Amino acid sequence: MLLAEVARVSREVGETSARSGKTALLAELFAAAPAEEAALVVSYLAGRLPQGRPGIGWRALAQETPPAAEPTLTVTAVDEAVTRFAAVAGAGAQAERRRILDALLGAATEAEQRFLRSLLGGEVRQGALDAVALDGVAAAAGVPAAALRRAAMLDGSLPRVAAAVLAEGAAALREVTLRVGQPVQPMLANTAKSVAEALAALGPCAVEEKLDGIRVQVHREGDHVRVYTRSLDEITGRLPEVAELARSFAGDRFILDGEVIGRSAADGRPVPFQEVASRVGSRTDVEAARRTLPVVPYFFDVLVAGDRVLLDLPVRERYAELTALVPEEFRVGRLVVEDPAAQAAEAEEFWTRTLSRGHEGVMLKALDSVYAAGRRGKHWLKVKPVHTLDLVVLAVERGHGRRTGLLSNLHLGARTADGGYAMLGKTFKGLTDEMLRWQTERLGELAVEDDGYTVRVRPELVVEIAYDGLQRSPRYPAGVALRFARVLRHRPDKRAQDADTVETVLGAT
Ligand SMILES: Nc1ncnc2c1ncn2[C@@H]1O[C@H](COP(=O)(O)OP(=O)(O)OP(=O)(O)O)[C@@H](O)[C@H]1O
Question: Is residue 425 very low, low, confident or very high in pLDDT (cuts 50, 70, 90)?
């Protein structure tokens, strides 16, 4: 299929405001895509490259290249060029990359160049596009969107499932199941303001300790254990003690969901999140890092046990399975509340005790709820003493004085209903020297425009922000701004589409 077709539909989708109109345009294109190119076409329209981020800087993309007069470029040819680009290494790499990019842009018409620049630069608005692309595939294949969404979550790749369902119809969906060794998007939680509010919303539920560490999904098949992060990256090699422990558990085939934390050698209290994050992030000399900060996983869910997929079992039954596999000392602390009215005081006491042990808060889970992979549902509710927001960095200002040479003052945005972002304020508070160095490097990679003072970036980096409330402000697009915002931590483990929406921000305060 010609890239021109993809670029045209992408433009038309952008110009159409009704969701049904967007879906129809995409469905027509997907139905017309040849089987061997369907995955690529879906991927491009969801704003993604199968190669991930090939590291093409905005300066390289901004360079003018004379366009081709006629469209001849196919999506397969684009894919091959990006693969070559991503593989270039060693001496002369920069010139070779330039050559590949010039050849690619030179083979594209003006309209195709525009699309390529946004695709390669990661500038296509992702969150909304993913969902719209999914609707388009469902309509083209004649399958329910919900069934397709679930299959894509289980498989981990919408383009792959899309290609199968476009070729084989609904039958392909039945074949998608959870497989050991294939990570699945974890279930996420919503926020409640208090334990009482969460109990009222959920009814019979489990109240669990909310540990502040790194989410891990542990897959075991015989002696093979793999550990994945929340963003589905494999980190087995960095956490040898987790793999060793999983090998010691009763079953020899399972998928467990849990949180890894470190404990202080002196008093056993949990160490700050940053220390665990830096331990998990360190790839070199894992053994030395392990001696400095050994970590322990605490599990709270099980998704596969033996040859059974447990996602559709309710919490109470999954927990019984977890109990059979994982010894109590490696499960999160938990209180079962069958009767919220009678056990309210007990639940409050569990919350107080959990906080006094140095944990972040509690997580309440409806006892009859299933595991909704990849969803931020209403069946898991977290309660924390300090309310925080996850916001996306839209731009950053260059520092001055002691911060000269560093990217410092962050422009923070919440997601809007149309797939964009509304800026809610700026802050440089709470950033340690190490965080400043880290964000300068990361935001440098995400830069798309630089006027010498403010660097606009691709909206990808999520930061966790504490704040004292909202104030009216006509200068900001949502009509409100954050008061006393400060950065608690960077959240490279989160995607922009996991960030808070303007709606939740307004509802939170
Ligand atoms: N008992 C628990 N059950 C589920 N998740 C837990 C538990 N204890 C700790 N967690 C962590 O809490 C996270 C769920 O909260 P949420 O979905 O809001 O993600 P989050 O935004 O990363 O959380 P937060 O920002 O509050 O740390 C999980 O991803 C997991 O890492």
Answer: very high
Determine the atom of ligand 1 nearest the C-alpha atom of 365: 3
Q: Mind listing the pLDDT tens digit for each residue in 475-484?
A: 999 999 999 9
> What is the predicted pLDDT for the residue at 509?
56
Domain 188-380: assigned CATH number: 3.30.470.30
In CATH, what number does 388-508 get? 2.40.50.140
Q: Whose CA is nearest to atom 27 of ligand 1?
A: 212
Interval 47-55 mean pLDDT:
83
Q: How far is the CA of 190 from the centre of ligand 1 (A)?
A: 9
The separation between the first and the last C-alpha atoms of the chain, rounded to the nearest angstrom, is 49
**Tens digits of per-residue pLDDT, 170-209?**
999 988 888 899 999 899 999 898 999 999 999 999 999 9
| Mutation probe of ligand 1 site: the residue of 191, 211, 230, 301 with most atoms within 8 A of C-beta | 211
Alpha helices by DSSP H, listed for 33-109, are 38-45, 58-62, 75-87, 93-106
**Encoded tokens for 310:** 């447990």
Q: What's the CATH number for 3-175? A: 1.10.3260.10
What stretch(es) of the chain map to CATH 1.10.3260.10?
A: 3-175
Looking at the annotation, which residues are catalytic? 210
Q: Which residues contact 204 (CB under 8 A, 6 or more apart)?
A: 337, 338, 339, 340, 366, 367, 368
- Whether 363 lines ligand 1, by a CB cut-off of 6 Å, is yes
DSSP string, 441-503: HHHHHHEEEE-SSEEEE-TT-EEEEE-SEEEE-TTSTTSEEEES-EEEEE-TTS-GGGSPBHH
Question: Would the ipTM clear 0.90, i.e. be above it?
Answer: yes
Residue closest via CA to ligand 1's atom 7 equals 210
> Which residue, judged by its Cα, is nearest atom 10 of ligand 1?
210
Q: Ligand 1 centroid to 189 CA: how many Å?
A: 7
Q: How far away, in angstroms, is 188 Cα from ligand 1 center? A: 7
